[in-house]
User: Fold these one by one.
Assistant:
Number 1:
Amino acid sequence: MHEEKLKQFYERKLTAEAGGGEDKIDSQHSKGKLTARERINLLLDSNSFTELDKFVTHRSDDPELKKFYGDGLITGFGTVNGRQVFVYVYDFTVLGGSLGEMAGKKVSKVMSHAMKVGCPVIGILDSGGARIQEGVSSLDGYGDIFLKNALASGVVPQITASIGPCAGGAVYSPAMTDFVIMVENVGQMFVTGPEVVKQVLSQDVTFEELGGAKTHATKSGVAHFIAKDEIDCMDKIKTLLSYIPQNNREEPALATDNIDDFNRVDQKLVNILPENPYHPYDIKEIINKIVDEGRFFEIHELFAENIVVGFARMGGRSVGLIANQPLFLAGALDIHSSNKAARFIRFCDSFNIPIITLVDTPGYLPGADQEHNGIIRHGSKLLFAYCEATVPKITCIIGKAYGGAYIAMGSKNLGTDVNYAWPTAEIAVLGPEAAITIMHRKNLKNSPDAVEIKKNLAKEYRNKFANPYIAAERGTIDLVIDPMETRPMIINALNVLSSKKENRPWKKHGNINL
Amino acid sequence: MEIKSDDIKTIFHGEIVEFDKNNNLILRIDDKKYELKLINFTSNFLEFIFDNSFYEIRVLESTSTDLKILLNGNPLTLKKHSKLAEIIEKAAGRGGGGGGSSLNSISSQIPGRVISISINRGDSVKKGDNIVVLESMKMQVAIKSPRDGIIKELKVKEGQSISRNDVVAVLE
Amino acid sequence: MEIKSVSIFSDEDASSIHVKRSDETYHVGPASPSQSYLNMNKIIEIAISAGVDAIHPGYGFLSENETFAELCEKNNIIFIGPKSHAMELTGDKMKCKEIMKKAGVPTVPGSDGVVEDVEEAVEIATEAKYPILLKSAFGGGGRGIRLAKNEQELRQEFEMASAESRAAFGKSALFVEKFLEKIRHIEFQLIRDLSGNTRHLFERECSIQRRHQKLIEMSPSPVMTTEKRKEVGEIAKKAAIAVGYLNAGTAEFLCDPHGNFYFIEINSRLQVEHPVTELVTGTDLVKLQISVANEEELPFKQEDLRLNGCAIECRINAEDPLYEFAPSNGKVPYCNLPYGPGVRVDTYLYPGCTVSGFYDSLVAKLITWGSTFDESRRRMRNALDEFIIDGINTTIPLYKTIMNDSHFINGDLSTDYLDRFSIIDKMNSEIKNKFNDKTKILPGVAAVMLYSEYIKGNINNGSSTSAPPSTFSNAARKNLNNANTSNWKFGGVAY
């Protein structure tokens, strides 16, 4: 009796699942891109996806605008390696994946759900932009999404994957999410496209140069990761999720099958720093030795390379690592690195992930370029972020730590819980050369062999001030440790701090110098 | 689910039919039923008796599309979502845009530390010329240019430690 | 032997077996060899303060360094090996060649002296015709030997060969030798005591090599006859006497397809492959070394020695044979060493140990003995199957292929064995063919299906679960935390 109705239901279902039709799907495939449903299959565990708003269509009266079930967007929930997530995936085969009023509502709905139940949200972008035919309503759609992005920020993790174009105002949604992954040669994001740029400024740029994955991962820092293809993109999302909790009230899951001994000491760390403190070395070598099984998931790998940030596990706990990289700019702090680290700290703080900082920096990068572009403002963000964070904070000073940069890299007075230092740490207001030049300016000016004297004075300075003991005597460094015990010392601190509770005075929110 | 083996270019269709409290499963693969008894299962190690033979499986790598295992000590790679992977791989065949396709990048076959860099950006090199020298396990291994060309980009610095397959330089 | 043992270790080796087994152990320096195991002064310092009577230098590092031997002598520490002046002679391959020529020992054609710069090398190479070998005058163990097929290669290899030699031995001087083809590498184990008693303990064939590093050694050699063995054995003894040798050493020869033997060098140390000789002669060479150093006479006459059965050794290296032998290092969370009649494993591996990137890639020596070559070969084949080393790549698959290779079985060996019979390709196709039909892959397919369900959090560690997988019912979801703790490594992703 109800067979007719059932038949109708299946017909509509199949129509909805067909997206924009065979030829649109083939066109998508020929470009080497997958359809939205295929992407969902790749990302989520098999048979775990439940679709919502499958039969939503747009409400425009424009007769030219065909109605499609789903309205160019597929939303719903499913599991990724057993963890519940909500997803919204643009369907490029339907009206070019353009966003209309109803599609915007769909995304909004999914994000509200996610906030109510406390699950991460993953968005996959592949869209031509706003649906011009719907006029202002499509802009309403974007507005709704932006509001939800902002409300959900810091409540549930939001990850965006860019596997196709995204232009105009639409790019602000991913910018507000916590992590952006762009697929090389496929993902593109820019506010104004190359044609308009050519028209208005006569600048000739290609799509890739203007807003491709490479550009955003290295120059602008908009993209946190580059994936070499869609599959790699899904893999990266899965790895990322394994380090973060479901929502801001939970802690990341503890790894119970960790085989790396908590107490593992590593003799190699004793002599790992080069003899000459001015010689560069790769900080990632040290990181590899102290984290569980040497696994370090780096974020923003190609942006602001003078600082390294990423997730790792120590003693089975997920932690956020921040470390200066002496290979680039000698590990100095500058505008981009301050931004990179500050944002990362705030993410970790939002989601209960402890922060571990390794310090070896000669100071801030000098120069008119830095000053004019606001190193003062941007540098302050890093300090603000450390102070504001209430998650367990552990810092270990390995090498140089001079002046303001010493303070900025998680020093005790910023509220860090445990501060360690290696015997090779040099904590001082200024590096030896600079200090001597200032302190003995008069003597050196009049002296004939200034160079010799300067060298000797610098040596004296180094022996007297460039060590961790003065700070240790004042309790600013809690403990000078044997480098080979770095790992167990940090893990012990993490264990003790796991029940840390810290309050801040009530405020609507601070006024970090954006 | 669909599982593909590149070794014999076959696609298997498998599903779990039944699963009881004693870890006895009945699987259907390509329309035939098989019995399996689970003995041990941890995040990277399985032991089971399948079709009356004992198997030990070690999981080496698990991505969205690949599962690399050691089946009784022998390496085997099986693929999921093989059709999707094919679509993507077809596109990779086209030359890359600004990203630098694999044809232009010179990568390292081994992990190691860069102890010397033999070229500069803009240098023109011939096939077989040394690009960088790595040090690993007492050996010095040179990474050579696969073809004639001009160095567009140098991606590593002296003192940096790199992993296998990391790109060390890019040719025009 | 009731002698107390003292060992030294670098930062890398603090948890190594030798540290655990010796009576006393001392830290010698950081990981880098030049600051630890090659640091002569530090080593002597430790030796003196620990009050040792003798030092056994092993092989590699300082074992053939005459400066070190001298240093020991100066400090009244017995160096278990030849005297420093003998080492000087054997260490300088060119001088040694001259001495051998005078003693009537046949030698290999090549450059008459050390080649100082690359131009001279190019000149000699052009005359002798490529391919040529660039050898380090102070080398050994295959280090510092490079093959150059043309001038461009020669120039590049010259630089690198010098650097490598300096890194391994502290000095560099190269000489040029014509590369002979289809030759066999056959060496004789020698031992000589203070009284001048010289014995040889028969030959070892070490022809199967890669980049001039031995991979497989065995005794006896398939092409040796009793008469030839006697003849060349006597020549080997002559060589030892000519340099005034003391203690254990090896005389290496090249044997061409016509059965002519050419002396190449004397290795003035105990070699990696010495267990092969130990198994076929029933001797303990290290013990003999210690007694000779203790000024005892050799307890046997030449006629007392017998070559019994056949022994084969495979050098298990931490390299990936499927990927250009790329070095592989890191933690070894699990390993299973083979055992049984006629199976011997000399290794530093144990579950949980670490293979360091600072030292040689040799991680284990697998030696088998059988009453015939075939018995030894089958034992080796089975032992290789049982040998499990997790966490790093090893050359075990290569040896599995060789043990089944018909050319190997027929004794058709030469130093270019691997290339001649495309063994690497053979190994690759054998690995591929392991799974060349559906039934062999089925258990893998089952594993993929199970794993999929597992990562959804539906299968619980082998113990019985109350809920069926969610593939066909809305089962109660387990605690979300449990679901993803058990596979954090594979948050669905590769390393």
Note: Chain B touches chain A through 25 residues (CB under 8 Å).
Number 2:
Amino acid sequence: MTLYQQADAVATTVLIAAVGPALLRYFLYHCRDREEAADFLQETWLRIHRVRHTYRPGESVLSWIYAIARHVRVDGYRKKRRLESHEHATDILPESACLPGLAHPGLTDFATLVAELPSAQREIITMLKVSGMSLEEVAQATRSSVGSVKQKAHRAYEKLRALKGKSGSQRGVQSGRDQRDDT
Amino acid sequence: MTPDESPAVQERITRQILANLRPVSPLPRTGILVAILLLIAAGIVAAGAWRQGTAGVRAESGSQSLVVLSLLAVALVAGAMLTAGWMVPAARYSASPAAALTAIVLSLLISIGLLFRHESAPNFLDRGIICSSIGMAYSSSAALLSVLILRRAAWLSPVALGTATGMYAGLTAMTVQEIYCPILSIEHIAAFHLGTVLSSALIGTILGLIVPHGLQQMKQIMKTKASGIQNRQRR
């Protein structure tokens, strides 16, 4: 990051390649469509570039980057809400292109499960488990306390466990039916 | 598009960033930013005492001026720390400006309630308006001088930064008012000295709400005009 501030092209390319995929995953877990996630990613990097002087050497790069990403996501959501409030539907369209549980077809089981969580819990789980940030880094990025992050993460794990159990038992019933059909 | 399918997006972003890559000097540490903001406040307070006089401190008892000015000093440090914290993304110390404002105003209100009494003051409103307008002039000066630092802020949360800066500027102005204003009536201090802090914070919040939208709209108008000129030139 310090080399990026000094306009080192190689370091900049390495930084984008290292953080980009995790950032894209962070947006994918929060957006309904993939184009939107790509737009958010691009906007985040443009903002990072614009305010790169506000990173102070020695501080956590991930917290700094994710704090910006979080603002881009929230601003995008607000902008969307503003546009939607001015639009009048002429046709009745389905609420979402995908079912809530299948928000991102083609993504992993983890993504499908995480999509069921409330936005705040999803954000924290994504930062902790996908981006590999520490509790302190997540707290700094979300401007909250470590205790609050821990509490949200704990609630998210409980919900994920319950969801996993539900989907596991559903799979068990389905495989039992399949076996009976085979015999 | 899964992350594995993202190289095209990454490449586009890398190209865009590399095209505008220039060295930048990082923002100073939070401690230095806080120190600069406190120096600005000290300068404004000194200028206020020199220009308006120190009748307020002379009229107050020792305990009154000691408690109120110490509280204001602590609140100013908190206000400067809050402003510096909201300038950068993911700052270590950044409480909610609304919560900080509530805490500061409540503690000042309690101390004023305990230290000052009701006094019949003639021309309550007229004198109050004059005192308040002097306070707002010093508050604007503090806010304008703090722009020297704020222009390098990330401006991710303009409303929070606006509230924090407004509060800091208002506290600077209230310190000036406490030093020069000889009216010791509890109603006057609560309405027109503490009112300066609240009005400044409110103005900061409103500016934080309006200015970014205004700038965005201006940018869009400029872009539309520029593309119109380009189209005409092509024709």
Note: The interface with chain B takes residues 2, 5-7, 9, 12-13, 16-17, 20-22, 24-25, 28, 34-35, 37-38, 41-42, 45-47, 49, 51-57, 59-60, 63-64, 66-68, 71, 106-107, 140-141, 143 of chain A (CB under 8 Å).
